[in-house]
Task: structure prediction
Amino acid sequence: MKLFLDTGKVEEVRRAVEWGIVDGVTTNPSLIAQAGRGFKETVLEICSLVPHGTVSAEVVGTSVDEILREAREIASWAPNIVVKIPMTPAGVAATRQLTREGIRVNMTLVFSPTQALLAAKAGATYISVFVGRVDDVSSEGMRTIEDAVRMVQNYGFTSEVLVASIRHPMHVVEAMRLGAHIATMPFKVMEQLFQHPLTDIGLQRFLDDWHKAGLKIFE
Result:
């Protein structure tokens, strides 16, 4: 499963890339606004930090013509950009046209299996299914992930199911169990993937024994 960082902060991308496990980055208008920098300069700097991964940058237009115009502009900025488009009738129509032009699309704000089906039929490269927001309203976000993964497999769609709105490491674990292609998460959650109390205890015990024995690697 590919791991994406969900952020608009360049410094978070830089730090995560150093770990060597980041396959891409997703952004959205809210994350970019919170970062406090220009849209294009932020996206381009992130693209430079993950040259072999994809960077999802979102349109803000709502009509088909607006979405197409913005998507073509954003896609022209760098070869590793995937244009993020909301799940609306206009978004689906624009996605169908953009995929015909060879522009990759990340269809976002997908909450149901039927929406995932429409995104796949439109040719979306990624289908961003939100789980945390569904959990917030007392439903099961992971059920949609399960349905979307099965749908892609059953019908041979080329779309990849991207688990979005991840709130904690268990969302990542559940995504793995269900065979999701990608999980995108905030920097804090990615940090938490490293953590386990038994790792900390074990490492400290190894170090204590090493130092007590007076051992050295370099003589």
The chain is about 50% helix and 20% strand. The chain has a mean pLDDT of 96.
